[in-house]
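Q&A log
Question type: sequence-to-structure
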Amino acid sequence: MSAVMPTASRPVPAAGFDVRRFVVRFGLFFLLAILVVVFSWLRPSFASAGNVTDILRSASISAVMFLGLTWIIAAGEIDVSFMSVAALSTMIIAGLVSSGFGWPVAVLVALSAGVAVGLLNGLLVAGMGLPALVITIATGGLAGSVAAAIGKGTSIPMATTGFVGPIVDADLGIVPVIAIVVAALYAVAWVLQDRTTFGHYIYAMEQNRRAVVEAGVRANRILMMLYVLSGTLSAVAGALLAADLSSGQPYIGTSYFIDGLTAVLLGGMALKMGKPNVIGTLVGVVLLAVLLSGAALLGWTDSQRQIVRAALLIAGVALVVWTRRKTRAHL
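Response status: OK
Response body:
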């Protein structure tokens, strides 16, 4: 008769307030508040109604562009074509409007181009299993090249902003109407992300895609949808930028590359501890808009602003990777 040795049960940690976890989850919110207070103190004009409106308007357009990217990274993939799709959208609209076409037709063609790039990314990455970074670099380069070809390497001015202009320019007090629309869009996205199985599948794909597929979930179809969504939203952001700038800009996407990755990865620390999420991205976008506005008022050079952006991106990547390793080590 064999003896059975008793096994010591692992002690359960006592429930209590975890200061470190709280700081990590809500640190981005604190940083945003600190930046607002500091810039308002150093430059009182920072808190003026006009500047607040400009910050919210620019942040809203960026937020539209980065929403699809958030879920792609949350699913464990990458898309670096989003900013080139936005640039292509501005050039398609400017080119068609300057040629006599109406804004509805121009916007429809631009959105179709965004869907096409997203579908191409999805087919190659999700359908054929090709590496997302290489593919989206290639498709982004293609979109950027087409954008440059439309204007022969230069911007295209527009005499009218069509029906999109009033949407971009309308304000409700100091709050742009577009900011209210984007807030509603992100609220819907939050519900899909945190309150539906669709959102759960996105995060499960990053953790173990094979297990998701074996569970009967069509992970490739979900990933393809995410790429199409990213391309479409980038094209929408391009239409808003075209109206805001009254022109098509073939190289405008470059300035959004670091901002997009920084907002998503740094925002991944907010609330979900290393998991990119829509609320974190929205806070990250506003933080970057506040930083850009405050730095301009303080007279920072473009190189100084780029250094700060790069530092925030490095911090975001490091924090997300560190948090994911810590989380998986305790599973």
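Response note: The longest helix spans residues 302-329.
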